[in-house]
User: What shape does this take?
Amino acid sequence: NYIYQIDSEIYVATRNGLYKYDKDSDRFEPDPLFGEKYAGKEIEITRVEEGSNNDIWLSLINADGSYGVVRLVKKDDGYEEVSIPFNRLPDRTTDMIYAEGEGPVWIGVSDKIFTFDTKFIRDYDELFHSLTLSVVIGQDSLLFGGTNYSISEDGETRITLTQDRDQRPGIKYRYNNISFRWASPYFDGEEKMQYSFRLLGFDEDWTRWSDRTEFTYTNLPNKSLVFEVRSRNIYGVESSYAQYAFTILPPWYKTILAYFMYVITAFILIVVIVKLYTRRLQLEKVRLEGIVARRTAEVVRQKEELEDSITYASRIQRAILPSEKILNEHLPEHFLFFKPRDIVSGDFYWMTSRGDNIMIVAADCTGHGVPGAFMSLLGISFLNEIVNRLDILRSDEILNHLRQEIMSSLKQTGKDDEAKDGMDVAICIIDKKKMKAQFSGAYNPLWLVRPLTKNELIQVEKGNDLEFPPRSIHDQRNVLIPFVGDKMPIGISVKGVLPFTANELEIKKGYSIYLFSDGYVDQFGGPNGKKFMSKAFKKLILDIQDQPMSKQEKILDERFEEWKGDLDQVDDILVIGLKID
Assistant: This one.
C-alpha cells in the first residue's frame, strides 16, 4: 500500500501490517517497530506519515472492516499509541495525512478534510449521564415525562436525577405493556452514540450496544421492576445509569379475593359432583333442584337487600354531612360540587363555626363505595370530637389529632401486613374579622384566587413577567396561587408521624378559595382518553372567576360531563368554592 523510509530503513505498509526490508536476505520481513499488533497481523496499514517530534501517523483498516487513524508518539522505549480522538472521523478510508511542521495535522477522508491540533489536551473520560425521556403505558398514557423531583422539608419541589421512592408507581396489570424512550445529553459525535438497556427482574443481562432509543416491553409479570439504560460515546466512555423503578400490580385473578372465590368454586363443584354420583334417584334430583332454586332466590333476595342497605346508607351518609347553613350565614357566595362515583362516597366535606372562625374541610378517603363511606364516617366523627369537644382550633393540630385517631382506630403500627387505609385532607380556617386564613393539607392543596393589584395590572399591560409563588398562573385580571399540603396522608406513612404544617394567608374582599379532592383532575376523557390534569383545572378555575359561585358550580359540572363523555367516572369528586365578601 505504501513505502516509507525511517532512519534510513525502508518500511512497507501492507494488508498484513508493517514490513521492513532486510538487505542481507533481500526480503521484506514483519517488523514490530510500532508494536506487535502491527507486525504481520490482520490489520491493514494503508498510509504512513511522519509528523513533528518524530510522531508517526497510520491510516488503518481493522480486522472487522472498520477504518481508523492512529497517532504514534515517539518515546524512549518505543511508541505510545493515541487513537481515541480519531473516533470522530467517518468510517471511511483515509486518503491523505499531512503532518509536517508545528501546525495542525490535516486528514483527508473521502470528500471531507479534518484538522487535528496536537497541542490541545482533552479529558475524554469526562462523566456524562443517560436520561429516561418518557415512560408510556397502554397506547399513549404518559406515566413519566422525563423529570424526577423531590420535596424538600419546606415543601419546595426540586428537580433531581434520581427517582424518589414514593415516586415509584404501582401499575395495574392490564397496563403491563410499557414503552421507554431515552437519550444522552452528550453532543460530541452524537450520531455515533450507542445505548444498552435492561429491565432488572425481567432481563437476564444488558442488551447489545446499538443506536436504538426506544423499546416496548410486553406482557410484563406482576412484580417490582427497574428499567436501566446506559450510553457509550464515540470515545468508548460509558455514562452513568438512568433508572426508573415501578411495580406491576397483580391481576384480579391473583388477588386474595380471587383465590378465595377459587376455593369456594372448587368446593361447590366437589359437592355437586358427589351429589350427582351418590344420589341417582329422581326424587333426590328434584329435591336438589329445589334446594338450588331456593338458594338462588336467597342470593337474589340478599342482593336486593344489600342494594337497599347501601342506598339507605347513602341517605345516612348525606344526613351526617354538615348542612350548608354555616356557609350560607357566613360565606353566602359559595358552592359545594359533590359527585360520588357510587351510591355512597369516599369523599366528604365538613364545616363548623367557632367564634369568628369558619372551618371547612375537603377530604378524600381510601377507596370508593362502602369502604370509603366507612372511612368518611370515621373522619366526620373524629373532626366533631377534635374541634367541638377538645376545642382544638389550629389547622395543623387538627390534622395531627385526626391522624392519631385514624391510626389508633385502624390499629396501624407500620407493619407490612396491616391495612394502609387513610385519607387526604385539606382544611381551611377563615377568620373574617381579622381577614386571615389558615391552611393545612395532607396531600390535598388549597388554591387562592385574587385580583391583580394596580401595579401588577400595569406590568401585565406592559408585557412584563410577574413574580408569583411556584406553579401559580395568571391572566389579565386574576392570579391563582396554589398552597401545597404536606406529602403525607392522614394515616400510616413511610415518613412516620411528622407534624403537619400550617400556612397563614392574608385574605381580602373579592378573594376566592378552592378546596378539592383529586377526583376531578384524575378523570379520564377528552379526545385521547387522558386525565384532565391539574394544569387544565387551574386554567378552568381562573377562566370562570367573573361568574358567581352558583354559576361556577354549574360550569364545573358541565365541563366534567363534557370531558368524561362515554367513559366511566373513576373517582368520587368534591370541589368547594368560597368567595370572601
Notes: The chain has a mean pLDDT of 88. Helices lie at 256-278, 282-320, 325-330, 369-389, 395-409, 454-461, 534-543, 549-564. DSSP finds eight helices and 35 strands in the chain.
